[in-house]
């Protein structure tokens, strides 16, 4: 029987390794650090190159009760949603590698988030869990800058990943991260060239690229998933063929986007062919996460406890070889 | 092997007549080599050139058709590894597996559910594609009976699965003329399986127990035995190994034009997975990565809908966003006093908005602007959905004559356009609606 010659690509580029979180010897307080990146081939193609670090699972925690979340999520998390520290502890128990703290602009009672409160919340979450932390602002330039500067100062040397840096608003966040030993997340709207350009701008501020994660913008299943999927494949191909400004590990906010949609929020008044709301919502997040892991995600940030387990199993099976 | 642009050029008339729409024959040849135009676009191509070019253009992954009539489907004929390089063409069929040992009532109920399942998304009806019937009983008569019972319920194409060639033959006889997929020839039984498949018109699946070498060896033997329509099962039942195998198969077919493995693939999430959750993950992987038929054990609308949506997403042509016709639409018999909303012609945007307007029962006008098939935010960022576009849409629709008021509601995401739109539409009151379609009913209740 003649042997079939398996085609292998000779990639010349390597994804940069980025380490989130710092342990005590590294100047932080985390019980462990988490490294992503380092790939020398496309996702999970172990016959061709190395994937030294398994993709990691982040779990989203918010600083105030998420009244706008899908009832499916509110039911399953219960009272944990009312306190970021216990929420983070629960996430760690469920198998999170990293906690993502999302700071809301206002709490459920309409009180505006203050820098002091944001800093205190970050400290509370840091003492509740030993996991590395991502901290995201509300997504409004002014509030992001105000809150994230305070956060960066409050936890010097912890290698928090701060975001999101966008082309119109990155300087303040990058400067704060530089000054206090943190990382940044560079976010661009589903476009290879814009992603490259923002990495260049951030690098021009002398931020070392091993402290930059890249958010290509996540489209959920049915809501632009195919755009994200393809832009991630293109970014990864560019990186592996040697384009140094696309070699950042990629992070996808899968939970946020999957659970924002009607399909994962609405139980009544939808077609019978949509099936049960809870099962559908879980499948929506699972399928989105699976597709994006296979197009190059180094980190997926999830919301539903059950999906954390399913995706953990998926990553383990895809890494075994 | 695919020809280069220059090689194609040598076969063309070289007259630069421009009738194909390209300035020169060379430009046309380049497009042809990139498979972006059809050869028929050239009116003067010679028969010899046509033959040479179509031989070179023989698909590296053979097109296989299953079933008959309205529910026939085809798989194969793919030309790229990554969808952004062109597009993926033939959507994989989802197949529900039933065993011939299942109680007849239970099997019938599952077949009924799959047969009737059809879910709409952005104007497309999405369905399962096949039923796989597996010979778990080991008995030919039981197998044939299960197949006949299933056929009485559905027109869906079948995948007939049996390890014994005589049993499979009995199964094929029970589904005569319906072009099922026969599963599967292995190194142990391929001669007997070839005899069953030969002359039946039914394609034959080939299962390797020992990787791609054995698979290629088997397909060559079957080809020599006159079986041309094959479907591959490379054999792995491990999620990670399977991803690598399917990637290797796609690369061998497309990059090496390796004919022995240039066939569509059948994949079995039902055997890769121990739980329904794992089955969902495996099915998603196979839809995105290169399977033509995806066989599952579970059917639940709450899972079928997301999986079929993934298939729709992955198989959307990246060069042509799915869009709807721009223009004015009426919901729930609007009058001169009803609100006027505006959105873009990206189909997902349109169907989200239309679904809410339809569902809430309140009368409204919806103006769909030509934003080149982009969503509200994307179109706005790209400059395709601005005050001028909207003003033009308002004027060409003639809506002003049908309204007693002059108010127009913008999507909340583009509230920033209000000022410019006031200038572009003098005398109109610009209102800002919700950001998300789901909040439209609540907005309309308070609209003034």
Topology:
The complex is a heterodimer of chains A (321) and B (448).
Chain A: E1 18-20, E2 34-36, E3 56-62, H1 71-77, H2 84-93, E4 98-102, H3 115-128, E5 133-136, H4 141-154, E6 161-165, H5 171-180, E7 183-187, H6 192-204, E8 212-215, H7 225-240, E9 250-252, H8 254-258, H9 277-293, E10 297-302, H10 305-319
Parallel strand pairs in A: 3-4, 3-10, 4-5, 5-6, 6-7, 7-8, 9-10
Antiparallel strand pairs in A: 1-2
Chain B: H1 5-11, H2 25-33, H3 47-56, E1 64-66, E2 73-75, E3 93-99, H4 104-116, E4 119-121, E5 124-126, E6 130-134, H5 140-151, E7 158-161, H6 165-174, E8 181-185, H7 190-197, E9 204-207, H8 211-224, E10 230-233, H9 239-255, E11 266-267, H10 269-272, H11 276-288, E12 293-296, H12 301-314, E13 327-331, E14 340-344, H13 347-360, E15 364-369, H14 376-381, H15 387-397, E16 407-410, H16 418-424, E17 429-432, H17 440-446
Parallel strand pairs in B: 3-6, 3-12, 6-7, 7-8, 8-9, 9-10, 11-12, 14-15, 16-17
Antiparallel strand pairs in B: 1-2, 4-5, 13-15
Plain-language structure description:
- The complex is a heterodimer of chains A (321) and B (448).
- With 321 residues, chain A is of the alpha/beta class.
- Chain A has one domain (52-319): TIM Barrel, CATH 3.20.20.20.
- Chain A has 10 helices and 10 strands.
- Chain A has an 8-stranded parallel β-sheet with strand order 8-7-6-5-4-3-10-9. Chain A has a two-stranded antiparallel sheet with strand order 1-2.
- In chain A, helix 2 (84-93) runs parallel beside helix 3, helix 4 (141-154) runs parallel beside helix 5 and helix 9 (277-293) packs parallel to helix 10 (305-319).
- In chain B, helix 8 links the parallel strand 9 (204-207) and strand 10.
- Chain B starts with a helix and ends with a helix.
- Chain B has 448 residues and is of the alpha/beta class.
- The model of chain B has no long low-confidence stretch (mean pLDDT 93).
- Chain B is globular and about 80 Å long.
- At the A-B interface, helix 7, helix 9 and helix 10 of A face strand 4, helix 8, helix 9, helix 11 and helix 12 of B.
């Amino acid at each position: 029987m003649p042997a079939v010659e398996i085609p292998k690509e000779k990639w010349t580029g390597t994804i940069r390794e980025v380490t989130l979180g710092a342990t005590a010897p590294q100047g932080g307080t985390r019980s462990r650090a988490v490294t992503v990146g380092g790939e020398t081939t496309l996702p999970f193609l172990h016959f061709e190159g190395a994937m030294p670090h398994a993709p990691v699972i982040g779990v989203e925690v918010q600083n105030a009760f998420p009244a706008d979340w899908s009832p499916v999520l509110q039911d399953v998390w219960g009272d944990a949603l009312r306190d970021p520290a216990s929420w983070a502890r629960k996430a760690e128990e469920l198998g999170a590698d990293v906690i993502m703290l999302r700071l809301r602009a206002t709490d459920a009672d309409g009180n505006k988030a203050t820098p002091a409160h944001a800093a205190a919340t970050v400290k509370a979450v840091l003492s509740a869990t030993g996991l590395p932390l991502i901290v995201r602002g509300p997504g409004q330039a002014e509030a992001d800058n105000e809150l994230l500067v305070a956060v960066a100062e409050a936890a010097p040397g912890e290698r928090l990943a701060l975001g999101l840096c966008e082309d119109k608003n990155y300087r303040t966040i990058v400067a704060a991260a530089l000054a206090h030993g943190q990382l940044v997340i560079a976010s661009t709207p589903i476009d290879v060239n814009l992603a490259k350009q923002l990495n260049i701008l951030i690098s021009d501020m002398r931020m070392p690229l091993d402290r930059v994660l890249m958010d290509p913008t996540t489209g959920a299943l049915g809501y632009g998933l195919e755009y994200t999927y393809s832009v991630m494949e293109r970014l990864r191909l560019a990186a592996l063929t040697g384009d140094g400004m696309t070699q950042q590990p990629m992070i996808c906010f899968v939970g946020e986007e999957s659970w924002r949609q009607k399909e994962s929020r609405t139980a009544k008044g939808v077609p019978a062919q949509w099936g049960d709301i809870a099962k559908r919502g879980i499948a929506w997040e699972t399928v989105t996460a699976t597709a994006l892991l296979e197009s190059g995600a180094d980190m997926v940030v999830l919301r539903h406890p059950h999906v954390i387990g399913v995706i953990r199993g998926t990553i383990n099976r895809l890494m075994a070889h | 092997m695919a020809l280069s642009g220059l090689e194609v050029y040598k076969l063309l008339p070289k007259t630069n007549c421009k009738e194909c729409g390209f300035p020169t024959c060379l430009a046309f040849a380049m497009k042809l080599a990139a498979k972006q135009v059809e050869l028929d676009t050239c009116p003067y191509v010679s028969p010899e050139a046509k033959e040479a070019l179509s031989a070179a253009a023989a698909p590296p992954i053979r097109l296989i058709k299953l079933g008959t009539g309205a529910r026939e489907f085809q798989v194969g004929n793919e030309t790229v590894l990554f969808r952004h390089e062109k597009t993926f063409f033939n959507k994989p069929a989802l197949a529900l597996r039933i065993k011939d040992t299942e109680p007849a009532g239970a099997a019938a109920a599952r077949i009924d559910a799959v047969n009737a399942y059809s879910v709409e998304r952005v104007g497309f009806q999405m369905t399962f594609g096949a039923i796989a019937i597996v010979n778990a009983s080991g008995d030919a008569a039981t197998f044939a009976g299960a197949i006949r019972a299933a056929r009485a319920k559905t027109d869906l194409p079948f995948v007939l699965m049996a390890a014994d060639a005589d049993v499979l033959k009995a199964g094929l006889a029970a589904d005569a003329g319906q072009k099922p997929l026969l599963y599967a020839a292995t190194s142990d039984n391929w001669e007997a399986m070839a005899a069953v498949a030969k002359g039946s018109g039914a394609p034959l699946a080939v299962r390797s127990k020992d990787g791609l070498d054995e698979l290629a060896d088997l397909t060559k033997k079957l080809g020599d035995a006159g079986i041309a329509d094959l479907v591959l099962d490379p054999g792995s039942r491990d999620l990670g190994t399977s991803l690598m195998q399917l990637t290797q198969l796609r690369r061998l077919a497309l990059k090496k034009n390796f004919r022995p493995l240039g066939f569509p693939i059948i994949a079995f999430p039902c055997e890769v997975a121990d739980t329904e959750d794992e089955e969902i993950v495996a099915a998603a992987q196979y839809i995105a990565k290169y399977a033509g038929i995806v066989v599952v054990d579970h059917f639940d609308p709450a899972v079928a809908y997301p999986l079929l949506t993934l298939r729709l997403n992955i198989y959307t042509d990246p060069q042509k966003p799915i869009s709807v016709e721009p223009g004015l639409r009426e919901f729930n018999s609007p009058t001169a006093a009803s609100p006027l909303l505006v959105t873009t012609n990206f189909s997902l945007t349109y169907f989200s908005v239309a679904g809410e307007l339809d569902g809430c029962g309140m009368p409204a006008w919806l103006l769909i602007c030509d934003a080149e098939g982009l969503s509200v935010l994307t179109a706005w960022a790209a400059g395709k959905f601005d005050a001028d576009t909207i003003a033009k849409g308002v004027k060409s629709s003639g809506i002003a004559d049908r309204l007693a008021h002059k108010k127009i509601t913008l999507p909340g995401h583009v509230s920033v356009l209000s000022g410019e739109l006031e200038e572009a539409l003098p005398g109109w009151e610009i209102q800002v609606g919700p950001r998300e379609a789901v909040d439209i009913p609540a907005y309309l209740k308070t609209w003034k």
